[in-house]
Amino acid sequence: MSKAALPLPLAAIALAACGGGPPPEPLAPRTVVDTVVVTREVAPPLPEGRSAMMCLASGQNVEIRIGAAGDTLIGPRRVRMVDLGPGVGFIGSYAGGEAWFINDQAITFDRRQFSKFGQPEAKECRAMKIVGDFDGVNVFADATASAPFNLLYVPVRPGVFQPYQTQVGRVRG
């Protein structure tokens, strides 16, 4: 009989079939262990919250998302507004950093003086219209109001407007 080299399990089966020894034990199943290496983190899905529209100083709406913790999230990656650096901004000019706004000075519009009235508030673009500007900052009035205006809104920061009310008397000009 000629001998051939067979792999061990086949050789044992061949010997058993030829009467050369006991049948082999069944092979135990092999366990394969893999290792996973994390090479980068993926941003989590959008946090729970609601979508909202925010009115910009240009009179345009931008969609934002309010996170479950109350954070205002913007952009496709839903970045928190408080995390934006000074090089990132919204279209339009805002009064929040202007000296006349910080120092509570009256503004002149349509040859009349207006003073801050109440607290800054969130306003929707569709509820207002641009009626002019003061010192490069757009001035808004209620969408249904007509001139002469008694109440104006000045954008302080994105989505927030300070009401201004007329003062008694006219400015010469």
Overall pLDDT score: 74
Strand tally, please? 11
What is the share of helical residues? under 10%
Radius of gyration: 37 Å
Helix/strand order = HEEEEHEEEEEEE
Which secondary-structure class do the elements indicate? mainly beta
Major sheet details = 5 strands, antiparallel
* Continuous helix count: 2
Outline: elongated
Percent of sequence in beta strands:
25-35%
**Termini distance?**
124 Å
Low-confidence stretches: 5-18, 42-47
How would you describe the overall organization of this protein?
- The protein has 173 residues and is mostly beta strands.
- It is 8% helix and 35% strand.
- It has two helices and eleven strands.
- Strands 5, 6, 7, 10 and 11 form a five-stranded antiparallel beta sheet that branches.
- Strand 5 (107-109) and strand 6 (112-116) form a beta hairpin.
- The protein is elongated and about 115 Å long.
- Residues 5-18 and 42-47 have low confidence and may be disordered.
